[in-house]
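User: Hi! I have a protein structure encoded as tokens and I'd like to know what sequence might fold into it. I'm fairly new to this, so please keep things simple.
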């Protein structure tokens, strides 16, 4: 009996050690690691278009479900990641940007950063790191950067968003092959308030009207096929 109890206890200890090791390994996974692997598996099943206009960034792109229909005549590829911050996209440049050999990159990233960042300046520094990373591997690919939008649910963070937009806009004026798209101003009313009619019920993600506004601002900047 004592022997069986000892064996049982030993097995339990080993099991807990194994579970702990497994959890430790899983905890070491970077954010969105599983999402990236899912994208790679999807690409193996459904081959992405060659030399696309690549849209990447956070959920405002990820949830643009009719993007291909709206940009009819353009070879667009949506590789947004819901919830991503700038450092996440920076981490996966070689996974969700480089392999597609994009003829153009459209970026929407930075809005999720305003919730936790200490200042707009720190977000700007993170953006510069992402931009320099992309330029190191794709030095001549034209880029469109879409400004942070004024989401009603994040109204208290709008001063930070405005600061980031200003810093990035001024920085990009001195850079080649990249343009800044202001979608912040058009998404405010004449009194400078947010426009809930452009958003879904969560007041964070856009409805069809919001995406139509984005489409009108982005389309003239896309390269022709």
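Assistant: Happy to help. Inverse folding works backwards from shape to sequence: for each of the 225 positions I chose a residue that suits the local structure. Here it is:
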């Amino acid at each position: 009996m004592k022997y069986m109890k000892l064996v049982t206890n030993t097995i339990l200890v080993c099991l807990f050690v194994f579970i702990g090791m497994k959890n430790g390994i899983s905890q070491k996974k970077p954010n969105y690691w599983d999402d990236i692997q899912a994208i790679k598996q999807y690409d193996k099943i459904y081959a992405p278009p060659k030399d696309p206009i690549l849209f990447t960034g956070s959920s405002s792109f990820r949830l643009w479900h009719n993007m291909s229909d709206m940009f009819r005549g353009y070879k667009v590829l949506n590789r947004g990641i819901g919830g991503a911050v700038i450092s996440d996209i920076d981490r996966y440049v070689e996974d969700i940007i480089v392999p597609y050999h994009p003829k153009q990159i459209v970026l929407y990233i930075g809005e999720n950063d305003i919730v936790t960042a200490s200042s707009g300046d720190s977000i700007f520094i993170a953006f510069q790191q992402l931009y320099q990373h992309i330029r190191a591997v794709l030095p001549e690919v034209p880029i469109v950067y879409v400004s942070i939008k004024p989401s009603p649910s994040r109204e208290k963070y709008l001063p930070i968003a405005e600061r980031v937009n200003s810093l990035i806009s001024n920085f990009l004026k001195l850079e080649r092959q990249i343009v800044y798209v202001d979608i912040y101003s058009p998404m405010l009313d004449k009194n400078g308030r947010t426009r809930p009619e452009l958003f879904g019920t969560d007041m964070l993600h856009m409805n069809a009207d919001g995406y139509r506004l984005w489409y009108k601002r982005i389309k003239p900047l896309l390269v022709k096929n």
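A useful reference point when you look it over: The two ends are 77 Å apart (CA to CA). Feel free to ask if any position seems puzzling.
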